[in-house]
Design brief:
Length: 146
């Protein structure tokens, strides 16, 4: 049994809807297709997963400090030599900390470090990679990598 399961259903050319088993859905399409907006591109969903996972984990690991105004901004940079992959990802945690409150700053910094060192499954998977398998309609394994 899979830990997670997402189904992507085609709406039209380069326009898809991804759904989970709990009924949530998100539109996935090309950024340059005005007829398929609003939508996320696949890379934007990857970045959203990093930001969302980071935020959820910080919520748990920084319970003792006020971080209600925390924003997580995730940006990617790719160069031609990255050959169709995201080359670098920066996850920025933005929050105006109370002046002179070293305890809050330290607790939040610790939570952010733990998020990426230990608890955020998405960040750790992106950092370390995962095995990817692609099966065709008849179940034949057409690609295995990672």
């Amino acid at each position: 049994m899979a830990d997670y399961r997402i189904e992507a259903v085609r709406n039209g050319e380069r326009d898809w809807t991804a759904r989970n088993d709990r009924g949530a859905e998100v539109r996935v399409a090309a950024a340059d297709d005005p007829g398929a907006q609003p939508s996320f591109t696949p890379v934007e969903l990857l970045l959203a997963a990093l930001g969302g996972c980071g935020g959820l984990v910080v919520d748990r690991t920084a319970r003792a400090v006020d971080h209600d105004a925390l924003r997580v901004v995730v940006e990617s940079v790719s160069r031609p030599e990255d050959e169709g992959r995201v080359g670098m990802v920066r996850v920025s945690y933005e929050l105006d900390l109370p002046e002179g409150d070293a305890d809050t700053a330290e607790a939040l910094e610790r939570a952010i470090r733990l998020t990426h060192e230990k608890y955020c499954t998405v960040s750790r998977t992106v950092e370390h990679g995962a095995r990817v398998e692609a099966a065709g309609p008849d179940g034949t394994m057409l690609f295995m990598g990672g």
